Amino acid sequence: MAEIKMEYREIEASLAAMKDTCGSLQPQAPQPISGNELQCAEKLADIAIRLQALLTRYQAVLTQNISSAENSVEYMRQTDVQLSGTMNGHVRIQ
Predict the structure, then answer these.
(1) Any alpha helices (H) in 1-94, and if so which ranges?
(2) At residue 68, does pLDDT exceed 90?
(3) Which residues constitute the domain of residue 65?
């Protein structure tokens, strides 16, 4: 019979690192160049605003994915505990 081994500590450490990285992203557009009517400056400001919105959406999706992964790990841990009770110690939980 094949064995599936979940390294919970490694998974949780990776998810925590992803959370920290996601939290450190700073989606802030630079302040517009005042008094400058150049088309290039306006386009750069527009691009910066779009980039800020994209990064904000990316953070939201990443946060949801991390939460989903954490829930999956917890579900797997609970399943391991339940199975270990029915298999009389044949499943090792780390």
Answers:
(1) 8-24, 39-86
(2) yes
(3) 39-89
